[in-house]
Amino acid sequence: xxxxxxxxxxxxxxxxxxxxxxxxxxxxxxxxxxxxxxxxxxxxxxxxxxxxxxxxxxxxxxxxxxxxxxxxxxxxxxxxxxxxxxxxxxxxxxxxxxxxxxxxxxxxxxxxxxxxxxxxxxxxxxxxxxxxxxxxxxxxxxxxxxxxxxxxxxxxxxxxxxxxxxxxxxxxxxxxxxxxxxxxxxxxxxxxxxxxxxxxxxxxxxxxxxxxxxxxxxxxxxxxxxxxxxxxxxxxxxxxxxxxxxxxxxxxxxxxxxxxxxxxxxxxxxxxxxxxxxxxxxxxxxxxxxxxx
Length: 293
Known about the structure:
This protein has helices at residues 23-26, 34-50, 52-59, 217-221, 236-243, 251-256; strands at 133-142, 149-150, 155-159, 181-185, 191-197, 208-214, 226-233, 276-280, 284-292. The chain has a single domain (23-292), classed as Protocatechuate 3,4-Dioxygenase, subunit A (Sandwich), CATH 2.60.130.10. With 293 residues, the chain is an alpha+beta fold.
């Protein structure tokens, strides 16, 4: 059984024009994502430090709002995506297997990549990804409007590993396949849907999907002007249930060695990236997520 790719499968920032075609990039290991993780951690620490004088000033004006004795002041912040809670979804590293031309092959140039069902390879490839059925519904909204306005006509390129933890175009055994990769355009409500399979869990990474958001379908298929690159995380209870079924090999064991709190990407916050899940192993699952950009 394949143990999946050694690299993380995740994207922060594109490096178009740089040379990402070396073999060591394809097999970069978890260290591929460490610089990005460190930068995100430092940004959050600096942001928190910059707020200290402001908090002190506010607490000295005689107001009792947000005081230490106020239970609400110690409550966790809402993960909602409307009003003052609206934030752009966190940017993540694209990882070594994007297939968008920034690190080897570019599936976005291929006719047929714009599709809802990504379980099958297209073009001259005929492979089919097997596993528990998964429907992924993303709603792209405009963060500058308080996340109240849908982003009609935006586009999302989504990619993921298969149930064996392999990435098409890159991993041994599926380099000639392009399944589990596709592009969709948002409707009037900013919504789009992919038909897929539940991904496996390979060593070192929490189960996830990758996606790039573009302002338009034309931008996506031309691989330019990426608005944000991020990831979707799956809830543990659903992962436990899926990985107890046949076909997922070592995914259950790999998951047992991980947590969202220690994953190198999600450990500094995953509220905006944790999918809402419904369904069952018999009928399949639906994962939904709102994506502010």
